[in-house]
Automatic annotation (TrEMBL):
Catalytic function, reaction form: 6-carboxy-5,6,7,8-tetrahydropterin + H(+) = 7-carboxy-7-carbaguanine + NH4(+)
UniProt record similarity statement: Belongs to the radical SAM superfamily. 7-carboxy-7-deazaguanine synthase family.
Native organism: Sediminicola luteus
Classification via HAMAP family: QueE
Lineage: Bacteria, Pseudomonadati, Bacteroidota, Flavobacteriia, Flavobacteriales
Name of the protein this chain belongs to: 7-carboxy-7-deazaguanine synthase
Binding site for S-adenosyl-L-methionine: 50-52, 86, 127-129
Cofactor(s) needed: Mg(2+); S-adenosyl-L-methionine; [4Fe-4S] cluster
Broad class of enzyme this protein falls into: lyase
Subunit composition and interactions: Homodimer.
Role this protein plays: Catalyzes the complex heterocyclic radical-mediated conversion of 6-carboxy-5,6,7,8-tetrahydropterin (CPH4) to 7-carboxy-7-deazaguanine (CDG), a step common to the biosynthetic pathways of all 7-deazapurine-containing compounds.
Length: 210
């Protein structure tokens, strides 16, 4: 397939820059502790300095892969599929989610919301970033809001974002991994004073799994 044909399929969401795919235990948020198959899509321009998957940023380093192959692999492992990145909403997620739903799979997304929401999702984890704020209706659609806490100022940003989501959205504060020893006590104290929030930890890192 020639390059222009590949790019056209990527633009349509029929091929995606696939960084990796793996079967593991969900480590964060509402579904932590449950088995899920992760599809990590390359490409992100949000640019969080503490990002632990910076190798996902450049989409050109990850091979465009037809969604049929991605879906066939996912269906072998789990009923729950998590699409993450990178920033998956960089790309049109409608074809991928339609194909996954055709297999009767539960489809989740982890996103900063930096691009318009596409796709049909059973669960939306919204994790806004200051560098590039969420767009459009995703605040109304999000099932959980996961705010990463790197410093004390992030609590203010978390409250600003919590004021924008729908009333049923579950609110989580999660320490950024490199400063967890310093931030966990602050988060615990904050949640105890503001019980609308819950604590989220990257439990997969404690379990030493992907």
């Amino acid at each position: 397939m020639v390059k222009n044909e590949v790019l056209a399929l990527v633009d349509k969401g029929e091929m995606l820059p696939l960084m990796e795919e793996f079967y593991t235990i969900q480590g964060e948020g509402f579904h932590k502790g449950t088995a899920a198959y992760f599809i990590r899509v390359g490409g992100c321009d949000v640019g969080c300095h503490w990002c632990d998957v910076k190798e996902s940023w450049n989409a050109e380093t990850h091979p465009p892969t037809h969604i049929s192959a991605i879906v066939d692999n996912a269906a072998k492992y789990s009923d729950t599929i998590v699409v993450t990145g990178g920033e998956p909403l960089t790309w049109d997620m409608n074809p991928l989610t339609a194909a996954l739903k055709d297999k009767n799979l539960q489809v989740h997304i982890e996103t900063s919301g930096a691009y318009p929401l596409t796709g049909h999702w059973d669960w939306i984890c919204l994790s806004p970033k200051k560098n590039k704020l969420p767009e459009g209706i995703i605040y109304d659609k999000a099932h959980e809001l996961k705010m990463i806490i790197f410093n004390k100022h992030d609590f203010i940003f978390a409250e600003e974002q919590a004021a924008k989501v729908n009333g049923n959205c579950i609110l989580y504060l999660q320490p950024e991994w490199s400063v967890r020893d310093k931030m966990v006590p602050l988060i615990v104290d904050y949640v105890m004073k503001n019980p609308k929030w819950k604590v989220s930890l990257q439990t997969h890192k404690y379990l030493n799994i992907p």
